[in-house]
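Predict structure. Chain length: 306.
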Amino acid sequence: MMVLHLTDCPSGLRGDLTKWLLEIAAGVFVGQVSARVRENLWLRVQETCRSGRVVLVYSAKNEQHLDFRVHGDTWEPLDFDGIKLMLRPNNTRLKEKQAGGNPGHGFSNAAKGRTAKRFSAMRSRYPDTYIVVDLETTGLNPNTDEIVELGAIKVVKGGKTDIFHGLISTSTSITSGTTALTGITNDEIKVSGQPLQIIMPQFISFCGDLPIIAHNLDFDKGFLDRACVSCNLPLVLNRCVDTLALARRLKKNLPSYKLAALAECFDLSIEVQNGSELNKPHRSLGDCETTYLLYEKLIDFMDASS
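Prediction complete.
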């Protein structure tokens, strides 16, 4: 048995959890799942809850017959001689965290050790073999708009090994706004576009069971889920990592967490090979490349902090 309590989390996350758990009250989910599914759900929650707060309680083989975790809250779980307790918020500790997380009064070394341990544990949850995914659409609503371009990069042990790219025929003409943003034209779709029913199975085969990395994952996942339903395909349930959520967790108080802003902040740049339009910003492969570089940069940051 597991119980999840969400506060101030994106509605998309709640929708994802209902695939596995029963929502018995607003933000309260219960269910009986395997340990593997529970761990994957917890990773998903951490990666997508943004500034929300989450408490997980689940059955465990210990003296208390339960265990719990928290994310984004001021209450802290701690182990006291094998007994799991919850440390309530303390004004002094809160002030120390807000000041940078290094408590004074002789505890700075211990605090640094805890921080390094936390980053080390966090780092182990992030893969070095994965698929980077990005898509371009005709609008923002997966129920009414369509995917027009789908790109992916396969990364093995941190190095790029393969790419996937598909232009998708749409039921309506590409608007001038979409063309202005992406550079994709109706003529290009007429010449190179293929039906979604052809592209989606190829994309799913390309991804296999590898973890998926994307920036602003909720947006991409909404369109991918809708595409799978319309093509009569099973949903893409690969483990996912959102670089937007990861950047917000590791780099506090940045003025913007948009992909272009983070690329500028981290001084990331991609080469436009042979003047190819496909590798430019707001094209799926170009944004995949930037997301790949951003993810690796964030992983390096975690490695340096552990």
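Summary: Residues 2-89 form a domain with the Alpha-Beta Plaits fold (CATH 3.30.70.240).
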